[in-house]
Write a structure and sequence with these properties.
With 242 residues, the protein is an all-alpha fold. Helices cover 69% and strands 0% of the residues.
Amino acid sequence: MLDLPFLPFCAFLGGLGFVCVAFVSTWCQHWRGGFALDGSAQMFNWHPVLMVTGMVVLYGAAALVYRLPAAWRGPKFPWKVLHGTLALAAFILTVLGLVAVFRFHNDHGTPNMYSLHSWLGLATVLLFSCQWLAGFSAFLLPWAPAWLRALYKPVHVFFGSTILMLSVASCVSGINEKLFFSLKNGTTEYSRLPAEAVFANTLGLLILLFGVLVVGALAKPSWRRPDADSPDSCQPLLTAER
């Protein structure tokens, strides 16, 4: 990756995340009929919006918290809180997104969990659940010994990047699946690239770019918080000095 200052890169990444959310919202509003809470196709539209917002954008933001230069100085406590809160918010939106799609499927008699997209998406959510619970237990609760936290930390970091890329793959495959299902029977076929297909394909590329840039930022050595940081960096959150 180019040797760029982190803060301008972070601002660009934040803008890109906003564009991803704006694109998926516009797609669902303009081409898919908007939003509702009644089990209709409009309720399904919450699914892509919440998944992109939660599992990609908010999750990516949570992953980059410790790359902020301000997080390198002083107590680590507030950054642990921010990291965990963003991840929890991402998880809540993800659960709501799952509720939307299962409610739509059940109300219309559509089978659940038969496509590759659904398998990949649910596996990603389950892995994210395990990641959050393991991180909470290892870094937030007082009973985890220091050697266990040190042992688990690289595992937590590895699966953080892995879950993000799985989220990106789930979103891209979901966009593709939705287009195949929607652009037929009286509409312009997907293979003819109508405006909706071009717009949604562009959304998929933007999501992929966001994920790649976040993983690249996480892998950049000069943007990592030094290991020899504040005294409370190895302490669990619930016993850290406030």
